[in-house]
Amino acid sequence: MQKHILIIDDEESIRELCKEFLEEEGYKVTLAVDGQDGIDKMNYDDFDLYMVDMVMPRLDGLETMKRIKKKQPLAVIIITTGFSSIEGAVKAVHAGAFQYLSKPINAEELLEAVKKGLQYGEDLYGPLQKAFEPGTEGTKNEPAILHGFTKEEKDDFMALGRLRKFEAGQNIALDNENASSIVLVEDGDVSIWLSNTTVDYLRTNDSWAEENFILASSTFTTLRSETVCKIRFFERKKLLDFFAYKGERLMKRFMINIINCIFSKWRKSIQRIVMLKLVTGEK
Fold it and tell me: What is the 8-class DSSP label of residue 180?
């Protein structure tokens, strides 16, 4: 998945230069004109790394960093600074910044710092993520909700779904025509949002809103396509009719799969809570 970087700097020339360097390396870049603008943009998007200037109007770099960390405790932040504010940059590193870069920005130093920062973020999640990773029931090349189905049963099930294509960045709201549907990602990457916070990611063959089959309801989450995606929607009523025709055995198999999927998501949520407490020191 393309890494997303937020550059917060009140100097337009610096913002644009860093953006050019990073986009040439394949990164997605968003710009903010000062600290408050950067904090506001966190309400509408998700970022893998932050570049924050030390001296800015409204919010200085140190205060901006603190507010970023409050909203996203595991955020990786690179501080940029002129010679006159080196002491402040050192304080920022002691307060949790990953690294600082001196102005004028050198392209090689910038790209190396960003590469290391992104790797650091992945390493921070990695060991704990493996410790809490769900079991391997089912295979990666099939949807977990169809584990134990015969090929014919899988084909018949998939035929029930309504397939739609979404462009990168497009919202996939689970309301109106999609309410009370189970969602299956047939191809692509999808992020899950609750209000303005990313709560999960889906890959090919992952499903979402499985609880809608047990009890018809409208989910409070929104899906967003991170790449071009193919999504298949399975309406609850069609599924109930399908299993009434197919028989009790397949219905029980499907219920077990749904429970396993919901349990796996619960374990991932517990993982995130543990990670946040370890990083923030909260008891």
Answer: T
